[in-house]
Design brief:
heterodimer, A: about 300 residues, alpha/beta, D-Maltodextrin-Binding Protein, domain 2, 2 domains, 14 strands, elongated, B: about 400 residues, mainly alpha, MetI-like fold, two-stranded antiparallel ribbon
């Protein structure tokens, strides 16, 4: 099912050209029913809290909102997706109270906020770690960021160049529409482009299946999707001095490098309205569902 | 009353015919206008400029060169026809690393001046920044921007629609990928489809036919994503083992899945056509002493050629336009296909995978519509071929 949703042009770092752009967004039936219900709720009460943005954070925030609403029957929380850029763009337009983002606010977006004098506060609600996985029969078990960059950009094409067997490297990636694709490009490839002959798969499940059945395969998946059919690699970002395997522990103590924080942004003038929900998200109970959803909880001292 | 009713029905039928035709024409018109918009888009992302130091003599870069510069594949201006000095790149998002919050000012009002100062101080720097941020008296040079040329789009071999600052829209690998997969799919499906159709209409007993026909038609009812999954889990590993490939996701896997999917269409339509072959023709042939087999291939098949051809075309149509199954098994690597055993990317898979995230009205979005136009022309050509074949056949037999 498709739904048209207006999107201001500067989402995604583009400058505003004056007219409104539209973005096609695939919506599942469940999501649609949810948003219809929410629209009805919105009309029923004027002071509902609206949360909008990243699709990565969407299931987690929906879960948090559900528990929160059970405990606070009088409250209203409306959660919609659309992507990090959409959420952040909605903040200055006052069409959302909290913007969910799976990346840090961009400099160009900060400039937009500054122009209208909006002071956005940033809260990290959870961390998301990406695991680099290979076929279980592959003897290689650690790589540096530089080696990963060379592999994903097509400069290294054989496993023997990184200490493995003489076998062609088959590189799997996600489709360009995925937030995971963008994050991996930023973090591991240093914003350079993937090679053109990369195999792009429509879903994480497809990557796991392909890596499982292809001997020379390498790919990346969210930490929560790790299973025994694929082998995670230890990764080093300091040129091979420290390697860390991906796990909830290494991701939360900072030793595993391919980790992205997931943010909530809100207008500082609305702090009183939004703080009950945000402090619930950061509470031990909220962080427990963070863990259940496959994300890495925020450490105590960071709250 | 009755006459009025008849009139109303006739009016209703006419109206629905016209409305449908007009809607179809409007859809095609929409597709074309959106697609043609790509050639009005600038090479560098709209509203942005590539600013250079005033000492730098380079003025023109094409999209591929810009990508190479920002990917650090090209690291010296010498390679681009400039002076012998290293290239350094600057993106707006790097501003936080170069300047402190105090320097930028509370409203970031100093950002433009600071960035142009930075570029003016570094002779080898190229900065990708919004046009509006650079002060008019900055004295910087800019890369000349032109609109995207059809030659680069239709003849280009690199598909990087999300590359910044300059996306690459070379559609040749996608077009060739689509044609390769469809061609091989038809090569597999055609012999099997025709033989099943001949068996069912001429050889099989009514009992077997009554059993076989629903089974084959059942294949039509399976959703394409199920075929895709079957392909990914069964066909892909099988090809990997049989051909000893490093990667099983390949054009061949896509062709096999598509062949299975096109089969029921070809069989059903071709079988119907053969069974509709006039009884008089068969009896005349048998009366002249021809055997059953001679009757089949000298009389039945030629006389039902137009039906068989339309079955084949419907099958090709399904193969060319099929999205989900192909998306899952071909690996979607946007490279020029050199062999059917390598991963490739088709046009429908590209549209399905990328349209969801392409900002509407942007160059990426328009390029996907242009791919739709190309797909439209492929199907249109195939349809013309069928019209031609069946017209020739009719003339011969009537």
């Amino acid at each position: 099912m498709w739904k048209l949703r207006p999107l201001p042009t500067f989402a995604g770092g583009k400058p505003e050209t004056g007219n409104q752009d539209f973005k096609l967004e695939a919506m599942t039936g469940k999501k649609l029913v949810f948003s219809i219900l929410l629209t009805i709720c919105l009309q029923a009460s004027g002071h509902a809290q609206r949360v909008k943005g990243s699709d990565t954070l969407l299931p987690l925030t929906q879960e948090l909102a559900e528990i929160y609403l059970n405990e606070h029957p009088g409250a209203e929380v409306i959660v919609t997706g659309g992507g990090s850029g959409v959420g952040i763009a909605a903040l200055p337009e006052n069409t959302t109270d909290i913007a969910m983002a799976s990346r840090r606010i961009k400099f160009s977006e900060k400039m937009k906020f500054a122009e209208i004098g909006l002071d956005a506060r940033e809260v990290i609600v959870a961390y998301d770690a990406l695991a680099v996985v290979v076929n279980p029969s592959n003897p290689v078990d650690s790589l540096t960021r530089e080696q990963l960059e060379a592999i994903f950009r097509g400069k290294i094409t054989n496993w023997k160049e990184v200490g493995g067997e003489d076998c062609k490297i088959v590189v799997y990636s996600r489709e360009t529409s995925s937030g995971t694709y963008e994050f991996f490009k930023e973090s591991v490839l240093d914003n350079k482009n993937y090679m053109s002959s990369i195999l792009s798969m429509p879903a994480t499940g497809a990557i796991i299946q392909s890596v499982r059945q292809t001997k020379g395969a390498i790919g990346y998946i969210g930490l929560a999707y790790l299973n025994r059919y694929v082998k995670p690699l230890a990764v080093s970002y300091d040129g091979g001095r420290h390697y860390a395997f991906p796990s909830v522990e290494t991701a939360s103590d900072g030793s595993y490098p391919i980790v992205r924080p997931l943010y909530y942004y809100y207008d500082s003038r609305k702090e009183a309205e939004v703080s009950p929900f945000i402090s619930f998200a950061l509470s031990p109970e909220g962080q427990e569902s963070v863990l259940e959803q496959g994300f890495v909880p925020v450490k105590d001292e960071e709250k | 009353m009755k006459r009025f009713l008849e009139k109303a029905v006739r009016w209703l039928l006419t109206a629905s015919g016209f409305v449908t035709s007009i809607v179809i024409l409007l859809i095609i018109g929409f597709l074309f206008t959106e697609g043609a918009g790509l050639f009005r888009e600038p090479v560098i992302e709209e509203g942005y400029v590539l600013a250079l130091n005033s000492e730098n003599p380079v003025r023109e870069l094409n999209a591929a060169e810009i990508k190479a510069v920002f990917d650090e594949d090209v690291t010296n201006w010498k390679e681009l026809g400039g002076a012998d000095m290293p290239i350094s790149t600057f993106r707006l998002e790097d501003a936080d690393e170069h300047f402190s919050e105090e320097q930028l000012g509370a409203q970031y009002e100093n950002a433009g001046a600071l960035i142009s100062g930075l570029v003016a101080a570094n002779p080898g720097m190229v900065a990708f920044v919004p046009e509006s941020m650079i002060p008019e008296d900055s004295g910087l040079n800019f890369i000349k921007d032109s609109s995207i040329s059809p030659g680069e789009v239709f003849g280009g071999s690199e598909w990087f629609p999300t590359a910044t600052p300059a996306p690459l829209f070379g559609m040749l690998p996608l077009l060739l990928g689509t044609l390769w997969v469809s061609l091989f799919a038809i090569l597999f499906a055609l012999p099997f489809g025709i033989s099943i159709a001949v068996y069912m209409s001429e050889v099989a007993s009514p009992r077997i036919r009554n059993f076989l026909k629903p089974v084959i038609e059942l294949l039509n009812g399976i959703p394409s994503v199920v075929y895709g999954f079957f392909g990914l889990i069964v066909i892909v590993p099988m090809l990997q083992r049989v051909f000893g490939l490093p990667v099983g996701e390949s054009g061949l896997a896509g062709s096999l899945v598509l062949a299975i999917m096109a089969l029921p269409t070809i069989v059903t339509v071709a079988e119907d056509a053969m069974r509709n072959c006039p009884r008089t023709l068969r009896e005349a042939s048998l009366a002249l002493g021809a055997t059953k087999w001679q009757t089949i291939y000298k009389v039945v098949i030629p006389s039902s050629m137009s039906g068989i051809a339309s079955g084949v075309v419907l099958g090709i149509g399904r193969a060319v336009g099929e999205t989900m199954a192909v998306l899952m098994v071909t690996g979607n690597a946007a490279v020029m296909p050199h062999s059917i055993l390598e991963p490739l990317r088709t046009i429908p898979a590209t549209i399905a995978a990328e349209l969801g995230e392409a900002p509407a009205g942007g160059a990426h979005y328009q390029s996907l519509f242009l791919l739709g136009v190309i797909l439209f022309f492929i199907t249109f050509l195939i349809n013309l071929c069928v019209e031609f074949i069946s017209a020739r056949n009719k003339a011969k037999y009537n």
